[in-house]
Design goal:
The chain has 3 domains: 46 residues, Transferase, Pyrimidine Nucleoside Phosphorylase, Chain A, domain 3, CATH 1.20.970.10; 245 residues, Nucleoside phosphorylase/phosphoribosyltransferase catalytic domain (Pyrimidine Nucleoside Phosphorylase, Chain A, domain 2), CATH 3.40.1030.10; 88 residues, Alpha-Beta Complex (Aldehyde Oxidoreductase, domain 3). The protein is globular. It is α/β, with parallel strands linked by helices and 431 residues long. The strands form 4 sheets. The chain has a 4-stranded mixed sheet with strand order 1-4-5-13, with helices on both faces.
């Protein structure tokens, strides 16, 4: 192991055998944490070649279970997001794509810090089970074309151990390590095609367009290298996506979108990604045709029916689609944040708005924190929107009456100026 650390520290390319030795030693526990951490830091500073990234990914993938989805007819298409504030995209998107007849077997994660996890949002629906057996998962995708669950079995155990060390050694934002972590789990999940939504900006993991582009290219290279259909979009996370931040609020917004009443930015992103997924799933010849199909199933109720079927079959209360406020947990207090001056909203710092929701109880500061599904923030203004003095910029949903600390944090991170224009939503695609 010392030789491997030395080789990478010196900027050399690791051999397949060296990477295999490392992954095996991590899983078995034969390599102590301090040596694993040393290699992670060497990778952080020296980077990895495309070949090294692909090998690391495949060795991590092979360290555990591999889902066999071959019994599900059709091209299985999945989507992954690098995460952000208000990013509930996967939930309505999966229902939209399933309504086109494309199987969407989605294995999602939980949130930590200011980014919300898809599983946490779905667990706001009373009874919804994110943990089901592999066989039930496969049978549900056959029946409904859709299931969203947490990782089953022992997927990529090497990644779990490496990720835990990256978190405490400040080596999280290494592109080769991020790419290996994401793709080892996605390849092990057994899908045929993958669209990756790489977020960029203040509320994202990758703050700059250059870093986001490098990560997107690394992810696509790995996917294509193992024979998967794979492409990425780089999308904005300088302000929250949609209007709702918080678990129940985001489920309610997802249902509104599936009824054709969702925020324009969220619908645009879903239709754009869905267009690519429709082509990958062989339901459309072009992305334009795919986007039109997505719009149709949103506005004719078929996507909502897909979502309702998934909720019912995973133990959730399907009445949530008809009466979300009656079924989902609701906060005791709704407190508006009035604008202190007139003008145009010029800044809404996404990660700090996420932190505000977390401090209300809607997110985790530590992995074992319990969530309050009912709390969060509902934006009434986005960047580029005009606002009058005293008009509500947003509403705070809280179970405590005094939210002065939250108001102060939000005022510090929302700016009103003489003029501003809305940011681009989709910067580029990597195919």
């Amino acid at each position: 192991m010392v030789d491997i650390i030395h080789a990478k520290r010196s900027g050399n390319e690791l051999t397949d055998e060296q990477i295999q030795y490392f992954v095996d030693g991590v899983v078995s526990g034969d390599i102590p944490d301090y040596q694993t951490s040393a290699l992670l830091m060497a990778i952080f500073f020296q980077g990895m070649t495309k070949k090294e990234q692909a090998t690391l990914t495949m060795k991590m993938m092979a360290s555990g279970d591999h889902l066999d989805l071959s019994s599900i007819p059709g091209i299985k298409v999945d989507k992954h997001s690098t995460g952000g504030v208000g990013d509930k995209t996967s939930i309505p998107l999966a229902a939209v794509v399933a309504a086109l007849g494309i199987p969407v077997p989605m294995i999602s994660g939980r949130g930590l810090g200011h980014t919300g996890g898809t599983l946490d949002k779905l667990e706001a629906i009373p009874g919804y089970k994110v943990e089901i057996s592999e066989q039930d998962f496969i049978e549900q995708v056959k029946k409904d074309k859709l299931a969203i669950i947490g990782a089953t079995g022992n997927i990529a155990p090497a990644d779990k151990k490496i990720y835990a060390l990256r978190d405490v050694t400040d080596t999280v934002d290494s592109i080769p390590l991020i790419a290996g972590s994401i793709m080892s789990k996605k390849i092990a999940s057994g899908t045929d095609a993958l669209v990756i939504d790489v977020k960029t900006g203040a509320g994202a993991f990758m703050k700059t367009l250059a870093d986001s582009r490098a990560l997107a290219k690394a992810l696509v290279d790995i996917g294509k290298g193992v024979g998967m259909q794979c492409m990425a979009l780089i999308t904005d996370m300088n302000q929250p996506l949609g209007d709702a931040i918080g678990n129940s609020l985001e489920i309610e917004e997802s249902i509104s979108l599936l009824k054709g009443n969702g925020p324009a930015d969220l619908e645009k992103l879903i239709v754009t990604i869905g267009g690519y997924m429709a082509v990958m799933g062989d339901k459309a010849k072009t992305t334009d045709e795919g986007q039109k199909l997505c719009e149709e199933v949103i506005h004719n109720g078929e996507a909502l029916a897909s979502f309702e079927a998934m909720v019912r079959d995973q133990g959730g209360n399907p009445e949530v689609v008809n009466d979300p406020k009656g079924i989902l947990p609701q906060a005791k207090y709704q407190i508006d944040l009035p604008a202190k001056k007139a003008g145009v909203v010029s800044k809404i710092v996404a990660d700090e708005v996420g932190v505000a929701s977390m401090l209300l109880g809607g997110g985790r500061q530590k992995a074992d924190d319990k969530l309050d599904y009912s709390v969060g923030i509902m934006l009434h203004k986005k960047i580029g929107d005009p606002v009058k003095v005293g008009e509500a910029l947003l509403t705070i949903y809280s179970n405590r009456e005094n939210v002065d600390d939250i108001k102060q944090l939000l005022y510090q991170n929302i700016a009103v100026s003489d003029s501003a224009k809305a940011p681009e939503l989709i910067y580029e695609t990597i195919e």
